[in-house]
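User: Need the bound-state model for flavin mononucleotide:
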Amino acid sequence: MLVVVASRHGATSELGEWICGTLRDGGHQVALTRPVPGADPQGADAVVLGSATYAKRWLGDANSWFAHYREALVERPTWVFDSGMAPRSVGDDVPLGDAVRVVDALGPRGFRHFGGRIDRALLSRAERAIVGALRKPDDDGRSRPEVEAWAREIDLELGGLLTGALGGALGGALGAGAATRDRGAIARD
Ligand SMILES: Cc1cc2nc3c(=O)[nH]c(=O)nc-3n(C[C@H](O)[C@H](O)[C@H](O)COP(=O)(O)O)c2cc1C
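Assistant: Bound-state model below.
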């Protein structure tokens, strides 16, 4: 499966790494990538898409990637997350901002908002001025256990999807066998 994460200063990439680690522990083959034009979801059984939030928007490369691959994404199971430091008046399972558009378009199996990290040492001068004006202290609001718990939910659902698909395929094969035997019986009669 493909985990696609847009990050400017690495905090959201790390969320992607935690998600990938948990999925790999669950036995899945996982590739982690930035939302670059060549990161094609066509070959993936399932996709997790995430972005950091800046000035109330997802990062531009996440929005562009989503717009470009939207049709391929609609055809496969998806999970969506974003990350930020703005206070929220709604639960972490409720999309806001760009996430609303993405969730409305994809109907993902899950959405989650996670806390982010502000570390002035990593920011540009302009960004430092913005967080200074907003009186935002350096802080890390990310919870690795919370992120990994969400990834385990994905792992469980993927397991269920796989079992369902296998069951369907086996059922089809057995059904076809039965039909062949039936036809044989008719022919013998
Ligand atoms: C200049 C600036 C603007 C930000 N704007 C928002 C915002 O509008 N909403 C929000 O929830 N978080 C905002 N954040 C917090 C980031 O989303 C958070 O720091 C995130 O973890 C950054 O992820 P990254 O290191 O992957 O780029 C802002 C941070 C900076 C530095």
